[in-house]
Amino acid sequence: MFTTNTLQTRKNEPRIYKRNFKIDLLRGFSILFVILLHLNIRVAFNGTALGEMLPQPLYKLLFWSGIYGVEIFFTVSGFLITQTALSRYGTPRDVKPADFYKNRLARIAPLLLLLLAVLSLLDMMGVENYVVKNGSGATLGKALLAALTFSVNWLEMETGYLPGAWDVLWSLSVEEVFYIAFPLVCLVCRRHKTLFVFMLALVIISPLFRSVWFTASEFEERNNFACMGAMAAGCIGGIAASSGRIKRNWIPFMKIAGWILFASVMLLRPTLYQIGLSKIGLNFTMLSVGTALLLVSWWHDASSGRNRSIIGLSFIADMGKHSYEIYLSHMFIVFGGVSIFESINNSSDASIYLLYASVLILASIAGKLLARFYTDPLNKYIRNLPLTRHKKA
After folding, report:
1. Engineering a disulfide at 93: which of 64, 88, 190, 370 sits with its beta carbon 3.0 to 4.6 angstroms away?
2. Which own/partner pairs from 348-351 qualify as long-range (CB within 8 Å, at least 24 positions apart)?
3. What pLDDT does residue 247 have?
4. What is the Cα–Cα distance from 334 to 358, expressed in whole angstroms?
C-alpha cells in the first residue's frame, strides 16, 4: 500500500530511486482483488452471463481474493520498507528511528487524518453505511481511538465489523504496529544475519497465531501476530535484495519457486484445504514466501536494467502506484456506485458490468487525484521538515 520506489545504485554515483513496474503491477492486482471483493459482496457478479462463463478457479481469483490481496500488500510493504531502509542507512544498527518514523508519518498521516475527519462527519450526520454504532459496543469514539492507535483489528475482534470505510483500517493498523517496532528491532539485531533470523522466526510462528491460538472467529485471523509473517517474509526479501549477494543464476529458480507457491495458493484453494494446509494457516505462509521470492527476482531484474512495462496492463500498474490512496478511499465509491445501481432498480447484466467498470475507473482516478494534489505534496513537505529546530545565535 506504500509508494516506496525501487532503489538502484552504481558505484560512486548517488542513489537513484526508480519505480519497479512489476511490483506496481502486483500491488495493482492486489487492490483490484480488494475492490472486486467489496463489490461482489454487495452486487454478485456470478449471476451474470460472463460470471457463469468463468471457470471457478478464475472466478474465485478475481472476486474472492480480497484477503489474499491484503496478504500480498503486507509482503510487498515489508520488502520495500526493509530494502529502502537498509539501502539508505547501510546496516540495521545504523537505522535512525526518528528519521524512519518521520517518513512513515509523512506517508500515512495526511490521508488517514482526512479520512477520519470525513468519516466522523458522516457518522454524526447519520449517513447510511457510515454510522459506526453496530449494537455490539462499537462507537464513533472507540473507532477513532482505535484508528489513531492502530488497533482497529483488535476493536473488530471485540465488536464485529465496522462500516466498510472504517473496516479497511484493520490492515493499516497491523502494518503500522509492525513498523513502529521495525527500527527498534533493527537496532537490537544490529546485523543483517541477526535481523534475517529474527524475521524468519516470525514467518515460522505466525501460522500458529492463525490456527491454534486465535480461532474464536474470522476476526481472530486479523491479529497482529498472524499477519506479521507476511511482512516478515517481505523483510527477508528486502534483506536479501539490499545485501547484493543474490547471484544471477539463482534468479530463474527463485522465479519458478515463487510462481509455484503463488499460483498454488491463488488457484488451488480447494486442494490446499483438502490436504490440510489452509487449516493450519500455511496457505498464507506459502503466498507470502512466494511473493517475497518474486519481489527479490523482480528487484534484481530492475537493478540490471530489465524493468519494462507490459502492454495492456498499465492501468493496473497505475492503480498499484496509488494503492494506498485507492485502498483508503475506494469504499466511498463502492457505496456510491451500489446506491445508484439499487436506485435505478435494473439488475441486468449490462448494468452490473457498468457498475463494476465505473467503480474501478473512478477509484483509480480518485487515488491518482488524492496522490497528486494532497498526499504527495504533504508527504514531501513533512519529509523535508527538520527533526529539530536550530537555535538562532
Report:
1. 190
2. 349/48, 349/49, 349/50
3. 82
4. 10
Q: Is the pLDDT of residue 342 over 50?
A: yes
Neighbours of 160 (CB within 10 A): 15
Grid cell 536494467 in the structure block, residue? 305
**Which residue intervals of 268-322 are DSSP H helices?**
269-274, 282-303, 314-321
Q: Could you give the angle at the alpha carbon of 232 between the alpha carbons of 226 and 234, nearest 5°? A: 120
Window from 96-100, 158-162, 183-187 with minimum mean pLDDT: 158-162
Q: What is the pLDDT of residue 386?
A: 86
Task: Tell me the percentage of the chain whose pLDDT exceeds 90.
Answer: 73
Please report the beta strands in the chain, taking only residues with DSSP state E, as ranges in sequence order. 6-8, 16-18
Scan for cell 482526512, then name that residue. 114
Cell of 154: 483488535
Contact in structure between 285 and 207 (CB atoms under 8 Å): yes
DSSP structural state of residue 161 = P
- Give the whole-angstrom CA distance, residue 321 versus residue 323: 6
Q: Answer yes or no: are the C-beta atoms of 234 and 2 closer than 8 Å.
A: no
Q: Where are the domains of the chain?
A: 6-383
As a whole number of angstroms, the distance between CA 148 and CA 113 comes to 9
Q: Give the three cell numbers for residue 46.
A: 456470478
**What is the CB neighbour count within 10 angstroms for residue 192?**
18
Output 31 or 385, whichever has higher pLDDT.
Answer: 31
- Cα(first)–Cα(last) distance of the chain, in Å? 43
Sorting pLDDT into bands at 50, 70 and 90, what band is 95?
A: very high
Residue 217's pLDDT is 67
Of 70, 92, 74, nearest in space to 83 by CA: 92
Which DSSP string corresponds to 164-232? Answer: HHHHTHHHHHHHHHHHHHHHHHHHHH-SHHHHHHHHHHHHHHTTHHHHTSS-SSGGGGGSHHHHHHHHH
Angle (CA) 302 306 309, round 5°: 95
Q: Which pLDDT does position 312 carry in this prediction?
A: 82
pLDDT value, residue 9: 39
pLDDT digits over 368-382, tens only?
A: 999 999 999 999 999
